Amino acid sequence: MRKQLLILVLALLPLGMFAQEQESAETEAPKKEKKSNAGKVFTGISGGMMLHAGYLFADDPTKVFSNTGLGSYDYVKGLPKSGFAYGFGGQLRIHFLDHIHLGGEGHVSTMPLTGTGSNVRTGWGGALCDFYTDWGKVRPMIGLSVGGGTMKRLFVPTDSLGYTPVETATGDTTNYNASYAKTPFFYMDPYVGLEIDFGNHIALLIRIDYMLPFGKTGSKLSQDVKWSNFMTPSGPRLYVGLMFGRMKKK
Q: Is 75:161 a contact under the CB 8 Å cutoff?
């Protein structure tokens, strides 16, 4: 996932130069040529980075940590099952017909837990499509992103309560006081948002989504993926970022 984000960031770097070249070319082009391009399909390209924050939750702590070896049920049921998450990501989009964005995105989000270093870290990426319209300098949009990612769940307890000592071959007794699980998933991510223009080549993007990840609830890959088996934690996130490029046709 980190490699995907790096590739995405590198892909966004030429956007500013590309947009400037396009603007210069259009300025020098004859008016008749501009009129002939008025109905073209491709109308722009843009990309940028976004920060996000949200509140994720599950109906049971076992779904949050989603691994074995956490001890007795009485101990596990006292663990947190919700919390705030934060992270960053980016996206790259191509504009069609002045009403459609098609592109890709990738994000990383961390949900801290228990104050001991426990956390749920989610990385995901996929394709996006949304529909938008122009209200002056404001563009409302509604869309959907689909793809896949990984949830990494680290649990570090405050003490060894709930853990059974394991006797090793040498006779030593060890308390396993941490647990880690890595779970792949697929997702659908509906969202709504607004873009506010600050000129022809920069805009503020505000977006709210609710990711719906689905797949195996455990870390093993032996079970079949089912649409009805949604993974947790999940919940709404608010994204704020800057988009650069050629926002609309001239």
A: yes
- The answer to whether 44 touches 95, Cβ cutoff 8 Å, is yes
Q: What is the DSSP letter of 230?
A: B
Other beta carbons within 10 angstroms of residue 43's beta carbon come to 18
Q: Can you tell me the distance from the alpha carbon of 116 to that of 60, in angstroms, rounded to the nearest whole number?
A: 20
- Predicted local distance difference test score (pLDDT) of residue 148: 94
Q: Are 151 and 122 in contact (CB under 8 A)?
A: yes
- Rounded distance, CA 67 to CA 135, Å? 48
Mapped onto helix, strand or coil, the DSSP state of residue 171 is coil
Distance separating alpha carbons of residues 63 and 219, to the nearest angstrom: 12
Model confidence pTM above 0.70: yes
Q: Give start and end residues of each alpha helix (H) in the chain.
A: 2-12, 15-28, 31-36, 61-65, 73-76
Instruction: Give the C-alpha distances (Å, rounded to integers) separating 232 from 66, 68, 81, 214, 237.
Output: 9, 16, 9, 8, 14
Cβ atoms of residues 15 and 95 within 8 Å: no
Taking CA atoms, 156 is separated from 25, 55, 112, 115, 242, in Å, by: 58, 21, 11, 9, 36
DSSP class of 59: S
Q: Give me the mean pLDDT over the 156-181 stretch.
A: 62
Q: What is the mean pLDDT of the chain?
A: 78
Q: 15-38: string of b/e by CB count within 10 Å (b at 16+)?
A: beeebeebeeeeeeeeeeeeeeee
Q: Helix, strand, coil: what percent of the chain each, to 5?
A: 15, 50, 35
